[in-house]
Design brief:
The chain is of the alpha/beta class. It has 13 helices and nine strands. About 35% of the residues lie in helices and about 15% in strands.
Length: about 350
């Protein structure tokens, strides 16, 4: 990260004057806190993730930081929807390791009590090296002071231009459910539904099963009440794109390849997870598909037509075609397409020092 410039008395006074100007609702040059600012088209992304189980969440977050370094998106914040401060600490480690310790983190305090854990890397923030020294720095000193995920959503959304924010939901929808049920607060007088309707451009959801057979979706079934509220309240005017389980199923990043691709250092959170945990468990790169589309656009994907999606009590996703629907979903790719997507993920790790 670039070093901070020393602030002169003149600069301090200038910033103070700008800050005073920003108290006016009609100010048009007050930066990101002005809700009237114009959207430039750069993807503004909030990542909503269930860190602490599958490793594809780690790659999704790593890719967003890499995209940001390339000037291809701005990561507004990370909402950790797997309950607990320990999981929020994983996001802190990833943000700090990637050179963006200032990235805001929110957590869920009232969510799914004991969701299934596939790969247990919950102790990542406390990993030590051969001499017992803590391997990874963290920027947050007191996780109890972190905002609830829905509050972070409200703070971030209210400060952005209208219809500009892309949400990547790659875990549970606990925080999103709370956001949609929230009322006006210090950040915005709008309800959660109205705030989403006004500020969100599209939500990219890793979830759903859309094929010949119907089966429950894992992320939704783990907290069916939260998921039901999410589907019921999400504004019908705001686009949703699903990356169903079957799309990422053909994209396998094998543990030995991951470790080899990060041969340039041992002090990398993902490498250490793969060295210390059993990651050869059928893990596929499901979550990065939502991130890639949110940042790089639709042209890389083959998508369904428009329609609506209904969630059954068994957590099945039922798609009904409709020209006026707000929902689409990614279709499975060819072997060549899967290889190209894997290469995008690999390059975010191989070239992380560029």
């Amino acid at each position: 990260m670039a070093g901070k410039k020393r602030m002169t008395g003149f600069h301090f006074l200038a910033r103070a004057l700008i800050a005073l100007m920003c108290g006016s609702a009609v100010c048009t040059a007050c930066g990101e806190n002005n809700p009237a600012q114009v959207y430039t088209g750069l993807p503004l992304v909030i990542l909503d993730t269930d860190l602490g189980s599958s490793t594809d969440d780690l790659f999704a977050l790593e890719m967003l930081h890499r995209y940001q370094q390339q000037g291809r998106c701005r990561l507004l914040g990370v909402v950790v929807d797997r309950m607990g401060e320990a999981n929020a600490a994983i996001a802190d480690v990833m943000n700090t390791s990637s050179g963006h310790p200032e990235t805001p983190v929110g957590l869920v305090r009232q969510g799914i009590p004991a969701p299934k854990v596939w790969i247990d890397y919950g102790s990542l923030p406390t990993y030590t090296d051969a001499v017992g020294k803590r391997m990874f720095r963290r920027a947050v000193s007191d996780y109890s002071q972190l905002p609830d995920g829905y509050k972070l959503y409200r703070r971030l959304l209210s400060a952005q231009p209208d219809r500009s924010v892309s949400i990547c939901s790659i875990g549970f929808v606990t925080a999103l459910s709370a956001l949609l049920q929230s009322e006006g607060d210090e950040y915005s007088p709008l309800s959660g539904v109205e705030l989403v309707r006004q500020k969100v451009k599209c939500i990219y959801v890793m979830g759903g099963v859309f094929g010949q057979s119907s089966e429950p979706d894992f992320n939704f079934s783990q907290g069916i009440t939260f998921a039901s509220d999410f589907f019921r309240l999400w504004p019908r005017e705001t686009d949703m794109v699903f990356s169903p389980m079957e799309v990422g199923e053909g994209i396998e990043y094998k543990p030995e390849q991951v470790i080899s691709d990060i041969s340039w250092t041992d002090a990398h959170p993902i490498k250490q997870v793969y060295l210390r945990c059993k990651c050869d468990t059928g893990q596929r790169m499901w979550d990065p598909m939502a991130v890639i589309q949110a940042v790089e656009g639709d042209h890389l994907f083959t998508l369904s037509g428009r329609g609506t999606v209904r969630l059954t009590p068994q957590a099945e996703t039922v798609f009904t075609p409709s020209a006026t629907g707000n929902c689409r979903y990614q279709l499975t790719g060819t072997t060549g397409w899967n290889a190209a997507m894997l290469e995008k993920i690999r390059q975010s790790i191989i070239n992380a020092t560029d």
